Amino acid sequence: MFGKNLDVDTGRGLLLYIDKQLDASQVQMNTEFQENLFIKINLNQSDQLLLGLIYRTPSNRSQEYTKQLNTLTTEACSKGYSHILIMGDYNFPEINWDSWNSPGESTESNEYKFLENLQENFLFQHVTRPTRWRGTNTPHTLDLILTNEENMISNLEYQSPLGKSDHCTMKFDFSCYTNIKSKPKIIKLFSRGNYIKIKEELDNIKWSELLQKENDINENWRSVLSIIQDMDKKYIPTKERKQIEVRKEYNKIRNQVKSRVNKLKREYEKNLSEKAKENPKAIWSYIKSKTKTKEGIGDLHLDPEDTKSDKTEDNRKKAKLLVEYFSSVFTKELDGVVPSPTPVLVTKVMSNQKIKEEVVLKYLNALKIDKL
């Protein structure tokens, strides 16, 4: 937890909750602006996120105050962070964020100077709907989300206010990559628990006095739960289960193999496409192998000679129809003694042929394998 101006009467106070698994530390800014809080979070490799929280009071309309705010924004953007996310209640109700225009034609107004500073620092503003409304007052966009890249924010949701606040809460996803610090998992060793001691302590508790009928049932349950948790801490040992380094090494090698397989697959598919005209059977065979649904035998007419006859989808009937159809083209031989062929008189004997290996190879090379 990071906070500022929480124990003093000056300002509204700022508070940021950061997950313990993130490597975060507070950043002190040089610009003197009362309500600002900046946190640095280490990301992958040498990338870092600068997370800022700002409150600008609407009661101070001086140009010096706005100049301090703009100087603070410029300082944040000039520190060289790869990722920048600045949020807060800026209290500029007159700015039109659809067109990025300030009211009036003056180039000296606080709104104009603020917009100019955002553009000079190449920041993007992502809030497009009113964030504050009260009664019949006109709703205004007072709370802003600023980043140094346009696509860093996604899934922005405008949700109900907290408590008595008249500002909505906002929920969004921020795109970045970071290594989460692995926390050892605590596991309980119930098989090694000292259940004799647990029984002794439970026997010494005066349950009738502890769980009285006059007490609320929730109060009695909290009392029992407190005793169970106390016994658990005292008599059930625990141990840390750290992440095994072998698993990390396995994941690394697995990813390398997967990357290599994908690369070889792309090369194979490219080779198939380049030789599609020469060998179309290969590419069609590959496409068929990747097809999720395989074609079967469609419905067949019960009478193959009549295309208007009923069809069947029964597999047994299909098999019978196919057997009858293919067996009908077989030659039916007569039963009995196989007849002898009529002798043919040879009048000219063919001389011995000499077939050279080169000739065979020539004709084999001339074959079109896609036509086989």
Automatic annotation (TrEMBL):
Coiled coil: 247-278
GO MF term (any one): catalytic activity
Pfam families: Exo_endo_phos_2 (PF14529)
Superkingdom in the source lineage: Eukaryota
GO CC annotations on file: extracellular matrix
InterPro entries per the UniProt record, alphabetical: Endo/exonu/phosph_ase_sf (IPR036691), Endo/exonuclease/phosphatase (IPR005135)
Gene3D superfamilies for the chain: Endonuclease/exonuclease/phosphatase
Domain Endonuclease/exonuclease/phosphatase residue range list: 53-169
Keyword field: Coiled coil
GO biological process, one term: cell adhesion involved in heart morphogenesis
PANTHER family with a match to the protein in the record: PERICARDIN, TRANSCRIPTASE, PUTATIVE-RELATED-RELATED
UniProt name for this protein: Endonuclease/exonuclease/phosphatase domain-containing protein
